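Risk register update: the risk of archive-format incompatibility is retired. Evidence:
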Amino acid sequence: MKQLIVIVLCLVEALASLQGMAATRPDILVFTDPHLMAPALVRKQGQAVQALARSDMRMIVQSDAIVAELVKQALAAKPRLVLVTGDLTKDGELVSHKRFIAHLDKLRKAGIKVLVIPGNHDINSPYGRYYDGASTSPAQGVSPDEFARLYSNCGYGAGSRRDTASLSYACEPLPGYVVIGIDSNRYADNRLKSRGDSVDSRPSAGRIKASTLEWVCDQARQATAAGKHVIAMMHHHVVEHFDKEANFLSPYMVAHPESDRQQLLAAGIHTIFTGHLHVSDIARDYNSDRTDSITEVATGSLCTYPLHYRLVRLHGGKASITTRSIKQVPGCPDLQAQARAQVEQAVPGLVDGLARKGYKKLQGAMGHLSGIMSLLGGGTQLAASDPAPFLKIVHEQYDAVGKQAYLIFLEGNEGRNKQSKAVTSRLESGIAGVLNASMPGMGGLLESIQGFIKENALPEFDNLLRSVMEDRNHCGTDREVVVDDLATTLPL
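Archived output:
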């Protein structure tokens, strides 16, 4: 009798354990921007691939191992569905697409459904290369039709409804949940010397074609009318993740974000998964009377610090989202530290690019004061034709704090970071530091100039900083909102 009781208790305990596992098992795993570089692209180690590694904040050389680790963790987590929101490959190389599909096939063979959508790197890219010692050579890319054929088991095959004007589609991979993949890319505008164009170019900015937006909204309305929940995914942002993103980082958004997101919301889309900016951030916008909202879940690049991906559990018309990181891969136990260092070494390049863009504007604003400054015994670096002295000053003021700020931005939940206030203060004071160093000996005139800048320009700059470093959207308005970037529950 005792043995029977023990057996029954063991069975009850095992059943309870299985039920607990089922309750915590995610329904969906989301990752984005793996930028997979097929190992076959490196024909011979050397200067070319080393230069690639130094030029980027992505762990591009380790990308294949990182995707393999993601697949391993997905197989352990056993989600019912995996969503990948674009930039599947380094630069659209056919060999990289095939390698990525080989990874995804391991998930599919385990009974996990997979859906993908392309990013701006994936189709008709002019930048796919083989790396052979000190030299490179072109690698074959893929066309839109080839992309759809390659990913016929990942959203582009039987069971999906396709938009005729783009690579957008709709399907029902989970009972009661319709996923709409929105193609927001402009690969038709890419230019390739290999096919006779005068230059190689690839737009980063996104766009939803008018006919595609109409098709997407129609699919959402049909699903909603049938009592189904809608989950959308695309590469570019349609909701601003900080105030003025559409102005300052327009290449990361669609062309008409305000009107597009209002149409998507009106059609019944309340949650959309995106990537592209390589930052894990969740942002929300409302309709005009705040009776409805759309929330965009942007996930950081899988190959960029801190190597995030999302787990989603669906329940009662809601989605509970948590965030995980890839910590290590074979041969690289300190992957997180290396990824962090990769970002830090790239930030001065970002600072330089921003400073050069702003230099001409500053020249125009300050150039007319140069005569007065000369009479007063002062001078300015801003009126010079050579930007080098000014750039040196900017780097001195912003390189170190820029690294701190960018890492905080990548990690998410910026407002909860204990360093945010100090970093924000240093970013603000850097303006005065740049002016003081750029216009030595100006005394009271410099104070007046700084006062003018503070009164007329800094309020907007302060609002932007607050939005980014405190993770607030719609700062100072009745629509201001803070959403947990790493763990939250959203209505579908």
